[in-house]
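User: Can you help me understand a structure? I only have the sequence.
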Amino acid sequence: MTARQEFDFEKKGKYATKYGVGPSWFPRPEKPKMPDKFEDVLKDYSYSAEEKNGIELKSFVDAIVNGDLEKLKHMNAKTVKKYLNYPVLGSLSGAICPNGKINGLSPLMIAAICGKTDVMRWLLDKGADLGLQVFGGPYVGRTAADFLKHYKEVQDKKRAEELRKQQEADKKQKQKDELNDLMDEVDGKKP
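Assistant: Let's start by predicting it. Here is the structure, written out as C-alpha cells:
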C-alpha cells in the first residue's frame, strides 16, 4: 500500500483559489490590490461585446473613462440602456453569475475606478445598479462603492505626499533665507 501524499497548500491551495474558487477548505489568498488607474484594469479585463458592437461599446467606455458627460448624454438611449448594468469589461472566465453579480466591470464601476463622480451620478439617474458585485477576475466581490473608496484613498495619499513635499521645500527655502541673511550680516550688508 502506498503512503498518502500530503497536499501542498502553499502551491496548490493558492493557485486553485487565486480568484476565490475551489473548495471552501482551501486557504483563501488576500484580496488583490485595487486598481490605481484605468490602465491597471485593462491588464485583467477586456471589452465584452461582440465585434459588431465593439466600436459602440469602446466609445461608451471611453466617454466614461474621460468623464465626457456631454458625449454620454448625446449617445443613443438604447446603447446606454443596453450597457448600463452589463459587464462592459469582462473577465476571461465564462462562469455563470448569480443575481447581483457580474462577470466583469459595469460602467458604474469603471466610472468609480476613474473617480468620475458626475458620470456616476448620471449613470445612477439612468438606472445603474449600485449593488452589483464583480463575480470573476481579480476584483471578486467588489462594488462601485469599493472602487470609489479606493480612488479616494489614492487621491488622499497623493495630496498628503504633495503637502509633505511643499512643506519640505518651504523649510529648505526658509533655511536658505536665514543663511543668506546671516551671510549679509557677516559681509556687513545688514546691520
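Now, to help you interpret it: The first helix runs from residue 9 to 16. Helices lie at 9-16, 38-41, 54-65, 69-73, 77-83, 107-113, 117-126, 144-187. Let me know which part you'd like to focus on.
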